[in-house]
Amino acid sequence: MGRIKYHKAAGLGAILLAVLLLLATGCQSQHRFIKKTAFKGTKAIIITFAAPVDETWATDISNYRVYEKPDPDIQLKIGSIVLSNDGRTVTLHFEEALNQNQPHMVTMDNIMSEGKSVGSAFVKVKKLYLGVLFSVLIGAMLIHNFVFTKYLGLCVFFGTSQKKSTAVGMGITFTIVMVISAMMSWALYQFVLKPYHLDYLQIIVFIGLVSLSVQAVDTILRKINPMLFKAFGVYLVLVIANCIILAVPLILADNEYNAWESLMLALGAGLGFLVALFLMSSARERLELANVPPTYRGLPIAFVVAGLFALAFLGFSGMSLF
Amino acid sequence: MCPAVGISTTVMNGLMLGIAVLFVQVCSSCTIALVKDYIHPRIRIPTYTLTIATWVTVIDLVLSAYAPVAYKAMGIFIKLIVAFAIITMRLEVFACKNTVGKSFWDGIGMGLGFMFGMVTLGFFRELLGMGTLLGHDVLGFRPLLFFALPLAGFFCVGFMMAVFNYVELVFNRMKKKAG
After folding, report:
1. Which of the four pLDDT bands, split at 50, 70 and 90, describes residue A27?
2. Taking CB atoms and an 8 Å limit, are A151 and B5 in contact across chains?
3. How high is the pLDDT of residue A186?
4. Looking at the domain assignment, is residue A11 inside a domain?
5. Residue of B nearest to A252 (CA)
6. CA distance B45 to chain A (A)
7. How many domains does chain A divide into?
8. Number of domain units in chain B
9. pLDDT score for B24
């Protein structure tokens, strides 16, 4: 029974991941000589080339024509052009702020690279918002996994990773409470604390809010779905003792994320904790059968195993998706 | 437990966090001991949490003003002192039943214990990882750079626990022989 459940969950996760990947990668088609285009700030566009381009060509404003996709007749005025030292990156500075919600089209005539022309290019610059959200999600889940790369929530992590069933139950409960409390604290911070300059109260407010939302979930679940409560109720108390649930609102407040990014970060933090718990519990179930030296039995070996997992997760570091 | 892994990379970091925890523990112990007669038993846990959160805010603001470098190194861990189960537990077990004076010394004891653990971890990690102590070059070379990585904290804590287990094992064996 339990096994079927895991397979279903894994299948669903894989499909979701595939769809997201398709969405994120499927919407960019570029000229072969141009590696990347992106907005920078509110008034600039960055274009990265595959090889160094000539400075005389690159800094000549008349070689570029930029317009917003819906109205090709209105050319946007370029103020200045900066070429990076390695000659591969050109930054177009505009006189007015760009409307980044619309894709922009950039035409470049006769690109000169090392004295030769490589033809003209016509490329699209757009903000991959879905990509940004996806990278926040994956970042919180794997690249900056809260357990293995930020070393948070360890007490609960070691306490509940002895059995797979416990680990999955804790992970799911934690993810749900995490999302609810993070969204609530985001709203409270953005609409109450910040406008009234009460930022310094954030620790007190957030911890109160977290305990409150745990209590609320507890009460609501008890009334609405007693079966579910029986399965997950025990973990609810442990959620408060987990410092990740407090760390996420603090990170959201520090980084000024918007609502969707906050949702993704909270979801990623919860799922990352679930992944960490699942991996660890699988390893610890096998450890029960292993011949461990008596002084290392129990927690010490668990710490060493967690260290090995952390080493593996170090492989994700420095990875950037978009 | 989390900061023991995350930021005990040097003696200084361990010491700073130890001092912060000591401060929070002593202040909240005293506060709870002072007002314990006015707290309704049913809302005692939320009261403890809010008291701790207040003192953490105090130390957070003080450190960010007077020791910005150390504050940056410790990052979010200072704010997360709030979630230390050990402080709440001490309030529940000791401070709500004893006088202010007794709670004060209890808080000092607990804080020093934590500080000792953090400094010991930091000592080994800094010595083995960087070959320095408190920023001064002691060994002149770096024996195991690995220990300077933040994730080596997992291994260090594991090894330390194993050492304590070993000492306990040897002690028990000696006791058995003697008895």
Report:
1. very low
2. yes
3. 92
4. no
5. B76
6. 10
7. 2
8. 1
9. 92
Of A153, A295, A314, the CB nearest to B151: A314
Kindly indicate the confidence band of residue A263, based on its pLDDT and cuts at 50, 70 and 90: very high
Q: Are residues A168 and A211 in the same domain?
A: yes
Q: What is the pLDDT of residue A50?
A: 80
Residue of chain A nearest B159, judged by CA positions = A300
Does A167 lie in the same domain as A53?
no
Same structural domain for residues A106 and A141?
Answer: no
CA-based nearest residue in chain A for residue B80:
A243
pLDDT digits (tens, 9 = 90+) for A81-90: 888 888 788 8
Interface test with A, best of B146, B165, B171, B172 (most A CBs within 10 A): B165
Q: Which residue has the higher pLDDT, B88 or A279?
A: A279
- The domain of B151 spans 2-178
**Residues of A at the B interface, defined by Cβ within 8 angstroms:** 148-155, 158, 200-201, 203-204, 207-208, 211, 241-243, 246-247, 250-251, 294-297, 299-304, 306-307, 310-311, 314
Question: Could B49 and A243 be called an inter-chain contact, meaning their C-beta atoms sit closer than 8 Å?
Answer: no
pTM score of the predicted model:
0.73
Contacts of A251 in chain B (CB under 8 A): 76
- Which band of pLDDT confidence, cut at 50, 70 and 90, is reported for residue A9? low
Q: Which chain A positions have a beta carbon within 8 Å of B64's beta carbon?
A: none
Instruction: Please check whether residue A189 lies inside any domain of the structure.
Output: yes
Extract the tokens encoding A22.
């398709």
- Residues A221, A109: one domain? no
* Domain carrying residue A93: 34-127
pLDDT at residue B78 in the model: 85
Q: Does residue A13 carry a pLDDT above 70?
A: no
In a domain, residue A301? The reply is yes
Structural domain ending residue among the three candidates A95, A111, A127: A127
Determine, yes or no, domain membership for A169: yes
**Co-location of A227 and A284 in the same domain:** yes
